[in-house]
Amino acid sequence: MPTASNISVLETLNLLEGKFAGVANGFLNGMYALWLGSAISRDRVVGLDGVLAKLLESLRLLIENTTTCPHFKAMSHILDLAELTGPDRATIDFTQPFAGWPVRDLIVERLWNKYSKVLGTEVEGQAALDYLLWTVLDFKNTFASQEADAEHLAIGMLVLEGVVTELATANWDALLEAAMTELGYPDASYTVAVTGDDLKGPKGIATLYKFHGCARRAIDDEPNYRQLLVAREASINQWMGNPAFEKIRVQLGALLQRTRTIMVGMSAQDSNIQLMFGDKGWRWDDQPAPIVFSAQELSDGQKSILEGAYPGKYEANRIAIWDQSTLPAYAKALLSSLLLLTLGRKLDVLISKVTAVGIDDAGKATLRQGIRKLRDVAAEAGNADRFSMARTIARCMGRCAEQFMAGKSEPGVRPYVPIHAKGPHLMDGDQAVAYSSQVEAATALGAIGLEVDDAKWTVSIDDPTECTSGALRVSAAGGAAARVFFASSDDRISGLIKAGAFDPDDGDVVVVCSGSVTRGSQRSPRASLRDGRPPPRYLGMADLLGESSSLADFRQRFTAEVGL
C-alpha cells in the first residue's frame, strides 16, 4: 500500500473518489477550510527545515570562542534540545559550515517539533526576546522574497475556482501571496488577517488568517507587526490570552464552528492550536468528517485536537475517529489531486448541460468518463514533478482562456482564468453557464478523452508560454498529430490567425469552435493543393452536436473531422 510520503497523485485521486469521497464532495461544495502548517513550505528556503538550517549556520558564524561566547552558549542549548548522543556530538566541528556537519539532517529532524523552543533560546546580552528570529536569522532578507511551490500554486487555483474561501495558517511566509501574484492576480486577492482589525478593509477573493503573524507585514510595518510574530514557546502559550489576538481568536472560533477543517502540513504541536479546536459543536460521526488531517499517522498534537473537538465521545470511539480523520497523502499529492478533481468536476457540470437531442443521460455519463481519463493522464504525467505540473496547469488554463474567449494568443505567461469563479454546486445553478460556449468545449474534451481511453489517441502539452501552443496536442497511433485550439465563436478563429497562433496553411491544426463555422472560416485550400497536406480543420460543435443522432454518431463525426 502507498504511504502518505510516496502516494502518487493518481492514487490520491482514487482515495478521494473512494474512502474519502464524502470529504472530497464536501470540499468541492465549499464545506471545508484549509488549515496550513510549515510542511507546505518545506521545500522552500522559508520552510521550517530551511529556517532551522539557516538559523544554526548564522549562529555558528557569530561564535567567537567555545567557552564564554554568548552565541556559542545559545548554540549549545539548541544542540541539547536535539538530544544528540556523545558520538554524534563529537562529529561537530564549529569551524565547518552547518551544511557539512555529518549530523545535520538528524539535528533538523530532532528540532522540527521543537522549533518554538529553539527560537525561544535567549542570548546573553541581547535585550530583544526575538533576537534569534529577527537578527540572527536575518528575518527581513530571509522572508523578503520567496518563490511559490506546488502547494501554494494549487491553493491559489482552488481559491480562484471558488472552492476555498477561508484559510488559516501558522506560517509567516508570503508564499501563498507570491503564488497568487504568479497566477496573475494582485496581493489583494487574499484578505490577510493577523488581527481582527485587518478584516475591516476591502474584501478579497478569500480570507487568509495568519494567526502567528505575517512576515511581509512585519517587514513593511515593523512597529505594528513585528511584535505579532509568534515563534517562541512562551508567545505560543500566551497567545490564547494575548489581547492583541482577541478579535482574531473570535473569528477563528466562528470559522471552526461553521466550517469543517482539512489540516495540511501542520503537526498541531502548538498548544494554542489545540485549544482553539476545543468543542465547537461537531459530532465525531457527522458526515463528511468534521476534521481531516493530511497525515500517515496522527501526531500527538492532532490527537489532542480530536480529543478536544469531541468531548465525552473521543475515548470510546477514538479508533474510528482516527481512521476517518487520517487522509494518507501529504501536501503536494493531496492539493494537486484536489485541484484536478475540481477542474474535472466542473467540466462534468458543463457536460451535464448539453442539450443536443442525440446526447442522452447515458451519453453524458460516457463523455464524463472521457474527462476523467484526461484528468488521470494529467495526474500520471505530472506526478514526478508536481511543481511543474501545477505551473503547467496554471499556464495552460490562462493560454486556453485567452484563445477561447478573446481570440488572442500573446507570447509569455498568461494570467490564470478559472473555469468558473464558484464551486461546482454553485456553478451548476448559474444560468449563464449554458450560454458561455464552455459546454461545447467540454463536450469536445470529453470526446478526446474517450479516444484516449480507447488507446486510439494520446495527448500531450506543448509549452503554454508560446503563442503557438494550443490547448493540447493530440496524436494518433499511426503518428499523425495536431495542435488543438478552442474558440468560443467563429470570429475568435480569425483572431487567433491574426495573433499568430497558427497560419491558414498549417496542416497540424484543429480548431474546435463552440458555435457554427461559417464558410469564411474554411480557409484557403492552397496548402493542400501545393503539397498534399490538409489545411487546418475547423470543427463547428453546434452543428456536430445538432446533427448527431447518438453519442456513437457524434464520436464518429468528431473523429472524422479531426482527421487523424
Question: How many DSSP H or I helices?
Answer: 27
Q: Write down the oligomeric state.
A: single chain
Number of domains: 3
User: Rough shape?
Assistant: elongated
Tell me the major beta sheet.
7 strands, parallel
The spatial strand order of the largest sheet comes to 3-4-2-1-5-6-7
> Any low-confidence stretches, pLDDT <50, length ≥5?
519-532
Work out the radius of gyration. Answer: 27 Å
Mean residue pLDDT: 93
Using DSSP, what is the number of strands?
12
What structural class do helix, strand and pairing data support?
A: alpha/beta
Q: What distance separates the N and C termini? A: 40 Å
Proportion of residues in extended strands:
5-15%
Helix % is 40-55%
Give a short synopsis of this structure.
The protein has 564 residues and is of the alpha/beta class. The chain is 47% helix and 10% strand. The chain has three domains: 9-38 and 147-216 and 232-332, Rossmann fold (3-Layer(aba) Sandwich); 48-142, no CATH class; 353-562, no CATH class.
